[in-house]
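Structure tokens please, single chain.
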Amino acid sequence: MIGQTSPLPIPVSNHLVQPIVGFMRTEPDLIPDPREVADIFNVSIWTLRDKDIQFETRNFRGRDWDIPYFQINNHKIWGATAMILSEFRELLTHL
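Here you go.
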């Protein structure tokens, strides 16, 4: 474990997520929950650092929300994951 980023409230699910940053010397055996994860793919830290975050508007419970996302190759990384990666990306700019 290296550290953590800011806790992130998720209004849609009413959860509070605490992201933890770390690294492993071996690649983990990831098993996605198909209800939650469409695909697992790798993105280098440097690719993430060079991408600009984008926004699209979506309506949820009668309210418009500006949803952040990163477009990386054929993948759209959005919502809470994009918000977490956005903060992580800011930390990378100070390296």
